[in-house]
Amino acid sequence: MERSRPGVVVTGMTEQYFQRRDLLALAGLGGVVFASALSGCSAASQPPVFPSGGGAQPPLKPASDFFFLQLSDTHWGFEGPPNPESAVCLKQTVQAINAVETQPDFIVFTGDLTHKTDDAKERRARMAQFKEIVGGLRTQKLIFLPGEHDAAADAGEAYRESFGELHQSFEHQGVHFIALDNASAPGGAIGDAQLEWLKGEVERVPADAALVVLAHRPLFDLYPEWDWATADGARAIELLSKRDNVSVFYGHIHQENHHMTGKIAHHSARSLIFPLPAPGAAPKRAPLAWEPTSRDHGLGHRAIRLAGKSAQPAITEMPFVDAAAATATPAAQSCNTPAPSYSAEVQPVLEKRCFGCHTGDGSAADDHDFSSLQRVLAERQDIAKQIGAHAMPPAPKQKLSSDETSLLLRWATCAGS
Predict the structure, then answer these.
(1) What digits encode the pLDDT tens for the residues 40-96?
(2) Which domains does the chain have, with CATH numbers?
(3) How far apart are CA 322 and CA 202, in angstroms?
């Protein structure tokens, strides 16, 4: 299902990122596209961080396409029925991101990195464990924001020790990023000093450039009864409204929500620990029940692409793929009967659904080449893995039917030829 606003298309997608040639092939599909292999993308160095308070505008790099990932509300250290797999969800997501050949320019974590504890020693231990896990990401350019679970108990003291300043700004490919702290103070207040800093940051952004704001809590009053607001968020929105191309990406509410305040687009992200009810949809704010048969459990992260310094962002939602659920497929069936025939049964499905990308000049032929039977057989186990996880074909291509899925999984599992 698509949720759109002017200039932005939000699409559903599994753990499979498009290659650059997918972008070229899909460029005419109304923006329903996300590209990962983009010229000029690099994770070799940290983006420059400029001092607060305005000053001369630094030279901007030539604009080019790039993408980054947003992960939010990982709540490392949480234990309980809402997520009996809490010890592995973050680790599985790190593995899934690392498995993609082309890496994002950087990865943003929008708060609640760890789960709240009143024990200062345990708080620091959880932060150290979290850093060790995400330190395994191939993309080493990581941007962290505090959530109230990380920073409210001690005004951000432990967070600073582990992750540095509570707010920051940086420039990337001509796009100005502002990471706010609206979690460490009571009520999520930004505070006078940080608002004055924000004013200077906004003033030094060119009028035609994209401005991306990162935060933990919503800046607008989404549902104050559940603490889904920022005490002085209206003042921040007033400052941001002076620019025409502003997008805010935040977490805190453990679900997707897309909202406009004037010209400003606000996008909340899923959690990687448990989903919460839609605003006001339940008597109280409480985690939704864990569904063992669900493949994503309402969890996930997102990819955000900007095509040049003035472009509106294109958002692709990346549902979590539960490794256990993904393997609970017909692939586990018995092979007591003859496997499907490749030439008579399997090849027609591959020709219809896979060969376009995986042969000749297809967009994914360099990664997985199906141009001969020998090559297809060599890829058999990976085919089973991708289909079992519902990662192929990638969106917006039509999904495999249940009969096609069952056929290919049985052929791959039973070593059909």
Answers:
(1) 222 222 222 222 233 333 333 334 689 999 999 999 999 999 999 999 999 999 999
(2) 3-324 (3.60.21.10), 329-413 (no CATH)
(3) 40
